[in-house]
């Protein structure tokens, strides 16, 4: 499972990355962790790479309002987002969960529990859900995304089969069987949705 950790405090980020990389996911394998202090770079990486879970601080940008806006952007680009904050508040928790966050955790829990144990438990539950129900937690299902972008897909992949994961085309091929075999080998947790794209130019000629 690939995890993106974001925190503008380097030492806090180091501790988060260390705890996550030392743990095992529900598939029995260690997590792959990418750690970033810059939320702008994180958003850019999410646009080009696939991460199963994002762990992010709440305080980003110049103020609370901007931090919430950044969080909404991260949630919109990530299948599952866990918030880990040093400055928890009920209004922020409610707003984050309404925006689609998987969990809202405290860096220094009031109940005296261990923050990293809480984080790893939440992360494992999130990854387990990701494995069992790949569509769960996404801003929109891949099937719906294909329907909404069929015009673009028809233009870019006429007559081909596309593999869509987290609202992105991650692979494509003229052969359904070849593509299916490839994605089964490459994606062992969350499986892409395979969709045959019509070739409208051929259909128009016929």
Please give a structural write-up:
The protein has helices at residues 10-21, 39-48, 64-77, 90-99, 115-132, 142-148, 150-156, 176-186, 200-205, and strands at residues 2-6, 32-36, 53-56, 81-85, 103-106, 161-164, 169-173, 193-196. With 206 residues, it is an alpha/beta fold. The chain has 2 domains: 2-132, Rossmann fold (3-Layer(aba) Sandwich), CATH 3.40.50; 142-205, no CATH class. Strands 2-1-3-4-5 form a 5-stranded parallel beta sheet, with helices on both faces. It has a 3-stranded antiparallel beta sheet with strand order 7-6-8.
Write the layout of secondary structure elements.
Elements: E1 2-6, H1 10-21, E2 32-36, H2 39-48, E3 53-56, H3 64-77, E4 81-85, H4 90-99, E5 103-106, H5 115-132, H6 142-148, H7 150-156, E6 161-164, E7 169-173, H8 176-186, E8 193-196, H9 200-205
Parallel strand pairs: 1-2, 1-3, 3-4, 4-5
Antiparallel strand pairs: 6-7, 6-8
Helix pairs in contact: 2-3, 3-4
- Our measurement of the CA-to-CA distance between the termini, rounded to an integer number of angstroms, reads 46 Å
Q: Segments where pLDDT lies below 50 for 5+ residues?
A: 202-206
Mind telling me the C-alpha Rg? Answer: 19 Å
Content-based structural category: alpha/beta
Instruction: Classify the helix fraction into a percent range.
Output: 40-55%
Number of domains: 2
* Mean pLDDT over all positions: 82
CATH architecture of the largest domain: 3-Layer(aba) Sandwich
Major sheet details: 5 strands, parallel
CATH homologous superfamily designation of the largest domain:
Response regulator
The H-and-E topology, N to C, reads as: EHEHEHEHEHHHEEHEH
What is the level 1 CATH name of the largest domain?
Alpha Beta
Total helix count? Answer: 9
| Total E-strand runs | 8
**The CATH topology of the largest domain:** Rossmann fold
Shape: elongated
Strand content: 15-25%
Strand order of the largest sheet: 2-1-3-4-5
């Amino acid at each position: 499972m690939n995890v993106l950790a974001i925190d503008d405090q380097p030492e806090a980020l180091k501790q988060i990355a260390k705890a996550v990389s030392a743990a095992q996911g529900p598939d029995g394998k260690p997590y792959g962790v990418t750690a970033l202090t810059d939320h702008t770079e994180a958003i850019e990486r999410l646009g080009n790479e696939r991460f199963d879970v994002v762990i992010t601080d709440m305080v980003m940008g110049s103020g609370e309002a901007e931090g919430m806006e950044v969080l909404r952007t991260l949630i919109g680009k990530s299948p599952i987002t866990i918030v880990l904050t040093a400055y928890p508040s009920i209004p922020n928790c409610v707003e984050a969960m309404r925006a689609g966050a998987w969990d809202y955790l405290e860096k220094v829990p009031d109940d005296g529990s261990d923050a990293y144990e809480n984080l790893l438990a939440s992360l494992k539950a999130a990854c387990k859900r990701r494995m069992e129900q790949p569509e769960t937690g996404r801003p929109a299902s891949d099937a719906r995304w294909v329907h909404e972008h069929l015009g673009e897909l028809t233009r870019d992949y006429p007559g081909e089969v596309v593999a869509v994961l987290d609202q992105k085309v991650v692979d494509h091929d003229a052969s359904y069987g070849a593509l299916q075999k490839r994605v089964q080998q490459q994606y062992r947790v969350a499986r892409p949705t395979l969709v045959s794209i019509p070739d409208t130019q051929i259909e128009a000629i016929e």
